[in-house]
Amino acid sequence: MNPLKPILIGLTGIGFLFFGLSFGIEGLEPYRWHCLLFAIVALSFVSNSRLVRAAFGVSALTAIVFFATQFISKTSIGSKNIDLTEDNRYTLTDGTRAILSELSEPVTINYYVTRDVDGTPAHFKRHIPRVDSFLREIESLAKDDLITLNFVDPEPNTDEEDAALLDQVQQIDVTQDDKMIFGASISSLEKKTVIPVFDPDQETQLEFQVVSAIAEVTTRNAPVVGLMSAHNLASGGQSNRGWLFHQILDRSYDLINLGMMPTASLGDAYEDHKWGDAPDYLDPEKIPLVLVIHPAAITPEAEYALDQYILRGGTVIACVDPMSMVAQQSGRSQIPGMPPQGGTPPSSTLPNIFKKHNIEFSGSQIMIDRAYATQQNPGVLLLNKEAMPVKDDISLSSIQNLAFLFTGGFSGANGKPIGTGVETTRLVESSYQYTFVDGQSLTTREGAQQLRFALGSRREDDKKQAFVTHLSGTFETAFPEGDPLAKAEDDKEEGEEKKEEIARTAALSTGTARGNLYLIADSDFLYDGMAYQFQRFGNSGFMQTVSGNGPFVLNIIDQAVGSKYLIGARARTPVYRTFTVLKDKEAEFEKARGDEIEKLKAKRDNANQEIQKIVSQMSQNSNAQMNDQIRAEKAKYEKEIVGANKDIRFQQKSYQSEIDSLKAGIFWKSILYVPIAVILIGLSVFFWRKSQTNAR
Predict the structure, then answer these.
(1) pLDDT tens for residues 124-157?
(2) What radius of gyration, in Å, describes the C-alpha atoms of the chain?
(3) How far apart are CA 599 and CA 577, in angstroms?
(4) What is the pLDDT of residues 343-360, one digit of tens each?
(5) Which of the listed residues 544, 570, 596 is the one where a domain comes to its end?
(6) 116 and 30, same domain (yes or no)
(7) In terms of domains, do 560 and 661 share one?
(8) What range defines the domain where residue 104 resides?
(9) What is the pTM of this model?
């Protein structure tokens, strides 16, 4: 008999006793399950039967694993994870850690999630544990436990549901009768912001959503950013509440609308900010960055203000455009089939600054890049990491893609490089497979289809175009003659009295500090649908990031105003992975077929010209109409036209057939490679083991 058996029986009884008492004594409740586990372990050693002891051992081991998992999940260790993604998408950025470590005021996160709803979509079920874990990790990393995380389950018709709706967290229709809530409110002192819905499709933006909200409610003085645009970004847009990008700007920064006459509106801005009297120039000390979006019909006076601002050490982001679709939508066509009349001019540039720094812009010509153009619309370019030659620039940190619409391109004029005495960096550039086309040709479906073969047959150029370029250094003025407005006043006729003498600041000819000029060859890339889109849920909705466009510009802004913390988090956007091998093969096919089609078109055009000559001859000479030889010759050319059209259609069908075969081949190879590899490995192991067995 086992001498320890009475002791084990006693320990088992004590464990079960305390387990039962925990239901009546509140002080024992935290130890309830530990007592049960202790009793089961002790009981497993009582029996002399190995089978019984093994069964108890397995049960005890299962219980230990379960309770250990529950214990670890409630600690900071449980919120740790191993990130095996290529770009460390699920590892907190250094900026996030810096924000959390520098918190100086308490933050409360009310996290609302309805957990027991029948019919909850699977992607929401998978996303809820991800958000749970992330918020716990944020709470554990906060300085001095300044973040308080409240988990709230807002069941229907409860005070918790009323609190969620009062915080403007959005209800999501799950079934016809059931709704769920999955969002959060973040508050600090008197400031509050809301994440109405944690959208599973925006998982890569989870860190930015939460951390930017924390930064927003804890920041008392937002950085100042100036805005110039020929568009009215505060209204319009697909959401009818202004551009979504403008909403982010207005929420994240102290935004000053400078209009298209920047110095004219400085008085109100200085008065609102209590900066004193406004000067007649833009001061980088007060406004560290000016964002210029589609400066259509910019005046020399406005361009001069930007020029002097850069010379004083300011940063300008200029988004110019050869053909802005947003501007075209602002006009109204008076005659059917005619382009819109009035509204904002569709093209924009900075003529004097570009001329000074040897920048050649494509004007009204649209650049199409075969390597990045989408098949549905060649005017839309999806630019990946291959288009970003500078790998260590902070503005491109974690940016995986950009999407441009009817963009232009920058290059050096007269064969010389961009920039005069300043550093020039191409941040985003084209491939060699580009061409320029008339923008109006892309607005029709037929023009877009014809362009595909034109791209396939073109020859590669010997240089690339820049979509985004950065000029930095000590600039020289683009206005050597000084202020255009002062010059205009000096040119008045002699004897004419000036009504008022205006004291003007002396014009700078050379920069007094290091300035920065970012040039972007598109302005529509910040419009709704290209940068952000509004996802509706019931009577409200939330904003989705659809590309890296917005984060890229915001990265530059943060870099300029000295707030770099959110750069890494906001840049985690959806990735568009282009099938480069497929695109290269398609380009080869298009080039071959395009050459054949061009030859056939030339043959058809030649036959048409000959027929026109014969028709003209027959109309001038009545005898020629009765000439059998002339009529036979005309019939021959007509037959050539029919044959050429038939061959063109055949070439187009052959091209599509080759592309379909290529896609099918890639598909089946992708499907069969792994099973075939597994089968071969299995057969190899089988025959090896068989040979080893036979050898014995």
Answers:
(1) 888 898 899 889 988 988 888 899 999 999 988 8
(2) 35
(3) 35
(4) 789 999 999 999 999 999
(5) 570
(6) no
(7) no
(8) 92-204
(9) 0.65
